Amino acid sequence: MLGCRMTVALALLLAGCGEDEPETGSLELVGHTDLGAKGMWSAIAVVGDTVYVGSRNDTKGIAIVDIADPSAPVVVGEIGRPFAALPGMSTRELRAVPELDLLIVLNLQCSPELHGCGGGGEEQNLRLFDIRDRRAPQILATYRISQTLAGRSPHEMFVWRDAMRTLVFLAAPDGPPSLEVIDVTAPRTPTRIAAWDPREAGLMPRGGGDDILHSVGVSEDGKTAYLSHQLSGLMLADISQLPAITLLTPPAAALTWDQPIVMGPHSAVPIPGRDVLIVTEEIYPMPFGGGCPWGHLRTVDVSDPAAPVLIGEYRLPQNDPSYCAEPTDRVAFTAHNVTTTKDLALVTWYAGGLQALDVSEPALPRQLAEFLPDPLAAVAVEDPGLGGNGVEMWSYPVIQDGLIYVVDVRNGLYVLRYSGRWAGEVVGESFLEGNSNL
After folding, report:
1. pLDDT in tens, 27-60
2. What are the structural domain ranges in the chain?
3. Could you tell me what percent of the chain has a pLDDT over 90?
4. CB-CB neighbours of 68 under 10 Å
5. What is the pTM of this model?
């Protein structure tokens, strides 16, 4: 098992609150698997005693990991060909719906330059698997993501489930449409029930390959979508009357930020019970992105959906523009994916590891702990776009039965335990992830 570095500050009592709760926290390593030291891992789906780990390139399938003993996760199988490890294709995004014994896999074409993929690539799609036998998933259906003359490349998805339906909200730029809503309640017959693009509501993208609908989130009540449209900004939409989708934020009021930051919102995750979003910004090294200064984290008040307001920011020291004066090769300290409890945000931050932030005062987010794994000595495939990073914490953190599961692109799957301020909000969770309401 690898060692780790962690930030563990002195425990201080909260002034005047009368509670013996420390003002800081710690992240403890419980278990780890390097997944065969293959490198280029992607999203995870956690369901019971099993974790499925996708691939950012086409060199391997989806790893099946037994976590019955979280301190000793072990790879027990793989979903391979003809459904994964296909030339030019990445199994980039995964979600599991335990009540349906369903695994949802987003397959997209990946880049030789950015991901180390081979040429070619099949149709981009969602594949749905029956996982009643967790170690032997069986294909149920394939939902083809249709192309347009402008081209479309599915990128991220949010899974929403209520008593009646299970829906996949899929960001598939460039489009139009750049947003699809797919009903997978009957997994053998996935059906598109809505297709929409913010350009239908008057958005005039600024132009350039990065000005895309990167991701979509959904509010706790399922009535509002949070649209992260990178350069064009953060917007909210009414999705309460599907298939109708109505933009609530006028395009001119979309939340953007000033230079020298060059990318815009990557994804937006709500803080439960509050009209506040945690918004990240992902900036890649050149030539794939703008390079340093790296993207950081922002908090946004959306109590008036017509006018989102920036209220707070959090940076690592490496996110300060002054850091750019030092040569850093391609070591990117950029915020990526978030899972939130009422007062805690768990954020993957590439070379910055996993960050645990106190967001009880959303305008003043602050660090409680960080986890930085010791990098593997070598992996089979180094990340072409981030070749200087020994640490590449990437996936949405998943909380299951009080433990945190997270993937480092390079170093594999980690199981962590959070202790300290707001720890009860983690310990008390049976399941929580930032890209579904499951």
Report:
1. 999 999 999 999 999 999 999 999 999 999 999 9
2. 33-144, 153-249, 259-438
3. 76
4. 11
5. 0.93
